[in-house]
Design a protein that fits this description.
With 170 residues, the chain is of the alpha/beta class. The chain is built from 4 helices and 7 strands. A 5-stranded parallel β-sheet has the order 5-4-3-6-7, with helices on one face. Strands 1-2 form a two-stranded antiparallel ribbon. The longest helix is centred in the middle third of the chain and has 11 residues.
């Protein structure tokens, strides 16, 4: 995307993207954004990457790169749900699907599911999930006593790998 030739602006903002730190939307709502590294003491029961919202190939490829040659932490469930058959097929063709499976992920067909509280990945009382889906209100993914944290696919993958919310390998 580029501006029109001769466009005039009231101000210019230059942002050095390498200075940005990963963030997470913490309960009770999507607008409660905090630095991911401030949540390093929160144990994770489940990680969800994908679903009908945010189940892009690029996210799965980024998660697979983090998990390559590694296994998710004991006691953590990792669910991978592509948004479409096209995404699923590309994951298979490029080896991303196999990489996620080798790391211990449960691979689901393209579907709408846990973030709408429908099936696969519903949370019990007191459980914690890191998800790449789009909402984290109480009861969104099962029990109203569960905690839902929304993060990038990379933060989600590191959280599955480490067993607690994290944005780098520990």
């Amino acid at each position: 995307v580029e501006a029109d030739a001769g466009a005039v602006y009231c101000r210019r903002l230059d942002i050095n993207l390498s200075d940005l730190k990963p963030v997470v939307a913490a309960p009770p709502g999507i607008d409660n954004v905090v630095p991911a590294d401030s949540l390093h003491d929160i144990k994770v029961d489940q990680v969800v990457i994908g679903s009908c919202t945010n189940g892009r190939y690029e996210d799965f490829a980024a998660a697979a790169a983090v998990l390559k040659g590694r296994r998710i932490a004991p006691g953590v469930r990792l669910l991978a749900i592509p948004a479409s058959l096209e995404v699923q097929q590309k994951m298979i063709e490029t080896g991303v699907y196999a990489e996620l499976a080798a790391a211990g992920a449960s691979l689901f067909p393209p579907t709408c599911g846990p973030c709408a509280g429908l099936h696969c990945g519903l949370l019990g009382d007191g459980e914690v999930t890191v998800t790449t889906t789009n909402r984290n209100g109480a009861g969104r993914m099962g029990s109203k006593l569960a905690k839902v944290y929304v993060a990038s696919a990379v933060t989600a993958a590191y959280s599955a790998l480490n067993g607690f919310i994290s944005c780098e390998e520990k």
